[in-house]
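dude i think i finally got it to work??
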Amino acid sequence: MRVTVLGGGIIGVSTAWHLLQRGHEVTLVDRQSDAALETSFANAAQISVSYCEPWANREAPLKALKWMFSATSPLLFRPQLDPAQWLWGLRFLGQCNDEAFVRNVAQLVALGSYSHAALKDVVAATGIEYHRLERGIAHYYTDEKSFAGAAAAAAVMQRFGVKRRVVSREELLAIEPALRAFGDRIVGGTYTETDESGDARVFTQALAQRCAEQGAQLLWNHDIEQIEQRGDEVSAVRVRSRIDGQCRMLTGDAFVVACGSYSTPLLRSIGISVPIYPGKGYSATLPLLRPQDAPSVSMIDDQLKIAISRLGDQLRVAGTIELGGFDLSLDTPLARRRCEMLVRRIEAVFPGVADTRTPEEGGNPQFWTGLRPATPTNIPLIGQLPRRRLWINAGHGTLGWTHGAGSGKALAELISGEQPAMDFGFAGQPARAARSSVAAGGLKAASVQR
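look at this
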């Protein structure tokens, strides 16, 4: 078949790759000049199968209300005059119970495990290098009350086959000695050795190049103007070059919407509503001053709900989510405070290891923000939409890098008439029930970009 994939982030490029492996002709479209220049550009770099808890849980409503009054809160709801935001919020509240939490965890772990295996297959087939570290992910706690819930969270993951275990402070410092300068603040943690980290942008751009080498047509610098439909069938997509202004119609046998948060307005233009809302996340990339003292284990800071990963000679720290529309500004007082919070925490945890000076002080921190396409359940939409030839692969929230390879493979299988080998509720198909029933009491959501 001839397939057009709309969106050149990790999700769209992975979809294109797996379609090519199944013999299809692929055209990949993105408004940027290369792959992964928006949502996939500078996330926290974690492949976190074991740390995939959805934001919605029984404690989330009260926390979200409290966090509304803090400029540096992990999850900040910024009310807008936008019916889509309020509808999303109501649906989110409907997921804040134990039954929904367990059901959503089951789906996220199933996709995460499937995707991790798919990523390993792609790396083995292509040899792509992307600052990959297969050293696991550690989650450290700085207060006893929070650490007391770590065992319950680990137990849920273990029931779904994830090897996340509780570790003492001493064990954690042995796993990652770089934490020793901060060790007197740590009370314990959890650790999953099977998780890993790496640069999503580097990987995605290299994979896009492999797609081109296998015959894919890459239409960079092209705006997606309109999905054309005849009756209940999509017939073409109209795109326009940002270079010369030329418009062209892309026809084919299937069309995939993988535009992240921007999937919502694009689909709304043809009368399709999807529950995806943008969550603004932040990151800072800092040059290492003492590489020998930098961490090699990726980690999560429980107090601030941020993630930290080493990428070669740099340290990436990312976190916080703002639900406030399509705002991407970095120069507002709120944005500056959230960026400064990330850098201050790095200096506190790893003093002198990275260059945390501000530009005014002579430093060069690379601040970034991107929109995380979140569904109320945090489960992405993968499958067929209510139009013939039209498919979706979007809504991955903070887990796009974790779920990217598997989401692309699964959708390519569905388009090819195959059934992916995992228990997952694909769009356009009846949702499957979670195969496990476990207590979710006391579990906490972590709004960390991965």
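Residues 433-450 have pLDDT under 50 and may be disordered.
im so relieved honestly
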